[in-house]
UniProtKB/TrEMBL annotation:
Alphabetical UniProt keywords: FAD, Flavoprotein, Monooxygenase, NAD, Oxidoreductase, Purine metabolism
EC number from the UniProt entry: 1.14.13.113
Oxidoreductase keyword on record: yes
Organism: Ketogulonicigenium vulgare (strain WSH-001)
GO BP, one annotated term: urate catabolic process
Pathway noted in the entry: Purine metabolism; urate degradation
NCBIfam families the UniProt entry points to: urate_HpxO
The protein's required cofactors: FAD
Domain FAD-binding: 2-338
Protein name in UniProt: FAD-dependent urate hydroxylase
Amino acid sequence: MKAIIIGAGMGGLCAGIALQRIGHEVAVYERVREIRPVGAALSLWSNGVKCLNFLGLEAQVRALGGQMDSMAYVEGHSGRTMTAFDLAPVYETAGQRAYPVARAELQNMLMDACGRENITLGAELVEVWEDESQVHARFADGSVASGDYLIGADGAHSLVRSYVLGEKLPRDYSGYVNFNGLVAIDPAIAPADRWTTFVADGKRASVMPVADGRFYFFFDVPGPAGQTVERADFKDTLRQHFADFAAPVQRLIDAIEPERTNRVEIFDITPFHTWTRGRVALLGDAAHNTSPDIGQGGCMAMEDAVVLGIALQVNTLGVQDALIRYQNRRAPRAGELVLRARRRAAETHGFDMAETQAWYDGLWTEDGSRIMRGLLSNIEGNPLD
């Protein structure tokens, strides 16, 4: 069988690898001419790492992952630690460590594993249609690809999603802007093996370790969508928003390089449960565009890829039947996590400051058990448990 995959992001590449492992021919088509990953890094929690392990990439992802042994929340103004705890209980219960990874390095590894000869860049999808035996994709240059089925892993603005649903879904603004990038690990900012988050006023400044002595950092700034900030002004903007935060946050702002920093307005899409139409199925952000508030966006795409491969391998009543079984296995879990992330965004970003203050107050008495239960609730129920 031949699979056409639209999108060479994390989900599309993992799907390609999963489908190759069951003997299917794979052709991946990516709109951009040069891969420039959106976002500097991502937190691969145990469920996402297990999916990569299942795809035969255990050694590769371990080499890319940061040594994140503990977690802490710090009061942003005073710099006092509110709670700090070891993450070992999470890893022991889940059966796998988490690995924060630089996104570009992960994507390059996945491209190598999928086979760069199977990936066509600069291929902008403009049309999808089906006949009795195949599905076809037309690209902006007039070329056409045909296969036995098509996977739409074409992201938050998915054209394939519009084909599957017959309409274009609105994206919902999550209420904040995220600045992110990579800096050298600096113990004056935070311990090298800890995910540390400074919180106050509905804002967050956070660092977590990735490989090669670097922190992945992000700043969350609540506010309206549609504003423009020039890259050259990123540091001054952050200094204004975090002017009264403690010295480690000021040191972090000083360390960032605006030309290597991303600014992203955060959106999600209200969950829907129709992921298939005939020989076409959705995967990753095309199926469940989520905010990053529980760190599960990339992990969900990897889970999709694993379940898709299994569904097509073990079910023999036809492609359409296997794709529906994939949809039915994935849509409820992914939809719940989208909503969970949405609720988390509201709690932590001061949309209702009384709710956010109650969360802050609870952090002072937190021993880590409640937070770890939350992390495990996101991990558990994955297809490789």
